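so i finally got all the pieces together for this one. its two components total, 552 residues if u count the protein bits. some of the lines might not be protein, just check the labels. i wanna see the whole assembly predicted at once instead of chain by chain like last time, that was a mess tbh
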Amino acid sequence: MTRIACFVEKYNFTYSDEAEALQCFKQTAEQMGHEFNFMFRSGLSEIPKYDAVFIRATTDPLYTAYVVSRTAWVLGLRVVDDPESIRICANKIHQYRLFEKYDVPHIPTLFLNKEEFHHRQIEEIFELFGKPVVIKAPYTSFSKYVEKVSCETSFREVAKRFFRRSDYIVVQKFMPSRFDWRVGVLNGEVLYVCKYMMPKGKWKHGVKRRGKPSFIWGRTVTLKRDNAPQRLKETALKACSVIGKGLYGVDIKEVNGDYVVVEVNDNPSIYRGQEDLRDKDIYEKIIRFLVE
Amino acid sequence: MHPSLETVSTVIVNFKYLNGVSCLLLSGASCVLVVSNIDLRTNAPITKPSAFLKSSVRDFILNVNNDYRYMKTGYYVSLHAEILGNSVVPTTENAIDAYRLPVLLVRASKNGTPVMPYILTDSVKQIMAEFNFPVVVFAVNPFSFNGFQTAKNRTALYRALKSLSMNYRYAVCAQPLHNEILQVKSFFGECNIEDDGVKEIAKKVYETFKIPVCKLLLQRFDGEAYLCGLQPLKMEEILPSDVDMISKIVSRFSGKGWFD
């Protein structure tokens, strides 16, 4: 019997689909004969009592989740997401540098330094990538801190905001599409495949409505992993191979029949009735990976 | 930093940097490339972070910076060195660990450093159940400059927790406060304080995390020194005498092998 702690925060239970998925993890683990407990911030001192830690709260080296991951790692526990994966996936600069180094096909990308940010450079970027371009903060997640700009004024405004927390930011070519592929990968194997559709008239999966605090999300269309295009799955596995052996969600765009990686996320969202719709065994596979 | 960035903007390579590389090529593998944003006074060539981030030098990299915080230039220097496949001090892993208080304390105590007991929490009740007043509360969130506050009573603790946890959005790290918090500048594990306990902690922390320039937070209690935290130094906190001390150590390193 393995004792698994699942690190979550209150917001993981906000959406019923996500809360139900967490219950599925618990049930599956218990059916397999393991102990599975939810661990909140107040229970962090209990990490040493467990054999494995499964993190579902948002990860970033500056959040509590990283402290949990790193502590568990140092103590020799099995961890998903492991600290190395968090470091690479939470910082898009780190990630795209690795994609370049290992020739993973990805969206044309530039890095912009705070100190060398001036008029001529913006013009040159627009010449190279055309208008508009996409600016990403290295710490982007859930479609936040990704913005599309098509003039110098808005470029400066967005860049200035992102430079507050990072001395480097990412600039990418704008590639519109009806959907992004999302390939779930665990330990070098495809776990699930779905399409994250863009909301009507929008260019990213999650967008804030103008003048309102609420976010709207596109639909999720799930495929059976065996029926998904082979080249898509190969591209996803190649992207994950440069990062590690954990659990990832790879965003891929299909451009004229080619697959280019948008980004690899650690801690991919798993909602009941969405990611697990066509392949019901994903809970079991993840638990089995945790207790191996 | 990026090959195609060079096609976008003309890169001006400064002379200091070119001298640095040629020296390295002449003197062979035992040489160390020192990257620093501090104006060191040494014979060893010093490369500025901005020049290093555009280069593709293959060598041992010694990254001397006042601030290695995640996503700041000091961090990206170490990251760039690692992606090029170089050995670097400090590594990005250590840079993050050292500034994340709970991880710092876990790893330091594993290595035999005396550390203050602590809890990671966002609840006043839990802190009060664990420790007696006064207590010291450290921020563990992405925004503050690793600040801390002390609290003598319940009201002060509520106030400290509310501000350092950013209205309970993030956790904080609480420790008992037996004595005032001592702030010690540590350069490569050496410090200017005549106290064996403190000197030993500075040495041990450097052994574990290899953070060349930092400020250690300590408490003295029952004649012993205990590690409480580690923070980046602000540029204005580095005095000319400190620059001399760093320069001396850097010259020593670049003269012979310093990786252990």
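The radius of gyration of chain A is 19 Å.
Chain A touches chain B through 42 residues (CB under 8 Å).
anyway lmk what u think
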